[in-house]
Amino acid sequence: MRPDPRFAPGVPSAIVGFRQDEEGHWVAELACGHTQHVRHDPPWQVRPWVLTESGRRAQLGVELACTRCRDGEPPTVRGPAGA
Asked: Would you say residue 56 lies in a domain?
């Protein structure tokens, strides 16, 4: 029996930046062109580093598992800064 690909780990991609979404949640921008929310929402997600600029800066270069790459999705298209 083949494992369900939806539960396979994602493709490693480095964090290259951060931004906030429309609701103020932090989003990691990945080297692959995709994005991923990074929330501190204990006890489900414990990421206190996301709450400070120095904490986020320390995570630049850290790889996250990109499930969008795994699933073959094209990179996220973003407009000019501030758009």
From this structure: yes
